[in-house]
Specification:
single chain, about 350 residues, alpha/beta, four-stranded parallel sheet, 14 helices, about 45% helix, binds zinc ion
C-alpha cells in the first residue's frame, strides 16, 4: 500500500525533514486515517505539531510581535528571515479605537520581543502586556528619542477646535496627550530613526543575528533616504501648500517638507458631523485649498458632495494604519502614492 511506502506507520516525522515533505506526509496521514482507524498514532499530532517537529529550526527563531502595520513593516524589514515577525493589531481595524483580544494576550505571552510605535498610540498595550505575564519579554519602543510635535497639529483655532470633540469619542481617546502626536512613521526621516531603534533593540535581544539586522536595516535606511530626496525635490515646488485632512496624521510630513496640514478631524470618523463639515468649509475658504484629503477605506460620500459644492477635489492620503500588504516595500509604494497625491493636490 502506497501509504506504507511513504511512512504512514512510522508514527513520527523525522526531524529536519523539508516542510513540503511534512505537508505531503500529512495529507497521506489523513488518507491513512480515512482508510484505517488503527493508525491512530499519527492522528495524535496536530498539523502544527507535525510541522514543528519537521522543522525544529523554527523553534529556535526569535519571535517578534509588532503592534501596528508601519511598525510591523519596519520590523520585518530589519528582521528579514532571521526572526519570525507577526502583527498584533489587525490592519483592518483602527488602532485609535483598539480593544485588545485574548489572542493578543496569547501572542505577547509567547513572544520574545514586542515592538511598539509608542508615543501613546497603543493605549491598549500596557494592560495587555500585564495580562500576558511574560517576564522574559523584551520591549522595543520604535519612537524612543524622537522629538515629537507637542501641539497636535498647527491648526488654526478659528477653523478647528483642538480641545474636545463636539462629535464625541466614546472611547475617550484623542491624540492630544503628553506624548505628542504619534504618527511619526509618515515622515521618512523619522521613519529612519524608528528603523534604527528597532535594529538596535533586535540586536540587543538577539545578538546572534546582529550581522543580518545591521545589513537589512542599512538597506532599508538607504531606501528611506531615497524616498526623502524624492519628497524634497517634488514638494519644494509648492512651498507652504496647505492641505486639509480628516485625520491628524501628517503634521511631521508637513513640517519636514514645508507644507501645512489643517486637520479638521483628529481621528478618522465613521461619519463627519455637521460641525466637521462647517470646519472643512471654513478651512477651504480660508486657505484657498484645492483639495480635501480623505483616506482609503473611509466612506466619504458626504465629503464628495461637500467637495462638489466647494468646487474642490477629494483625494486619498494613506496613513498606513490600515492595509493588507505585509511586504516591507509596501511602505515605499504607499508613500510614493502619497507624494503624488500631495503634489497633485498642491499644484
Ligand atoms: Zn492615526
Amino acid at each position: 500500500m502506497i501509504w506504507n511506502l511513504l511512512g504512514c506507520r512510522t508514527g513520527r516525522q523525522r526531524r529536519g525533514i523539508l516542510p513540503f515533505m511534512a505537508l505531503l506526509m500529512l495529507s497521506v496521514t489523513i488518507g491513512c486515517n480515512q482508510s484505517n482507524s488503527d493508525l491512530s498514532e499519527n492522528t495524535e499530532q496536530t498539523p502544527q505539531a507535525q510541522e514543528a517537529a519537521a522543522t525544529p529550526a523554527n523553534q529556535e527563531r526569535t519571535k517578534v510581535v509588532a503592534t501596528i502595520l508601519p511598525t510591523y513593516l519596519f520590523t520585518k524589514a530589519v528582521a528579514g528571515d532571521a526572526a519570525d515577525v507577526s502583527i498584533l493589531v489587525s490592519p483592518t481595524t483602527d488602532v485609535h479605537d483598539y480593544q485588545a483580544t485574548p489572542d493578543d494576550v496569547k501572542a505577547i505571552a509567547s513572544a520574545n520581543i514586542l515592538v511598539k510605535n509608542g508615543l501613546g498610540l497603543e493605549e491598549f498595550l500596557d494592560s495587555t502586556i500585564k495580562n500576558a505575564e511574560n517576564p522574559n519579554l523584551t520591549r522595543i519602543d520604535a519612537s524612543q528619542g524622537i522629538q515629537t510635535i507637542d501641539e497636535i497639529s498647527p491648526v488654526d483655532k478659528t477653523v478647528t477646535d483642538t480641545h474636545g470633540h463636539s462629535h464625541g469619542h466614546s472611547h475617550g481617546h484623542s491624540h492630544d496627550h503628553a506624548d505628542g502626536n504619534p504618527h511619526v512613521w509618515l515622515d521618512p526621516v523619522l521613519a529612519k530613526q524608528q528603523v534604527t531603534n528597532i535594529r538596535d533593540g533586535l540586536i540587543a535581544a538577539d545578538p546572534a543575528n546582529k550581522a543580518t539586522y545591521t545589513t537589512n536595516a542599512a538597506a532599508y535606511i538607504q531606501d528611506l533616504d531615497n524616498l526623502h530626496s524624492e519628497f524634497q525635490q517634488t514638494l519644494q515646488k509648492t512651498p507652504n501648500c496647505t492641505f486639509i485632512t480628516f485625520h491628524d496624521a501628517f503634521p511631521y510630513l508637513a513640517q519636514r517638507y514645508n507644507l501645512k496640514q489643517v486637520a479638521v478631524v483628529q481621528i478618522p470618523e465613521d461619519q463627519l458631523s455637521p460641525g466637521d463639515v462647517q470646519k472643512a468649509v471654513k478651512a477651504v475658504q480660508k486657505y484657498d485649498a484645492k483639495a480635501l484629503f480623505s483616506e482609503p477605506g473611509v466612506d466619504n460620500k458626504l465629503l464628495t458632495s461637500l467637495a462638489q459644492d466647494l468646487n474642490v477635489t477629494v483625494r486619498n492620503l494613506d496613513s498606513l494604519e490600515t492595509g493588507g500588504e505585509r511586504d516591507p516595500q509596501y511602505y515605499f509604494q504607499t508613500m510614493r502614492k502619497n507624494l503624488q497625491t500631495l503634489a497633485d493636490g498642491c499644484s
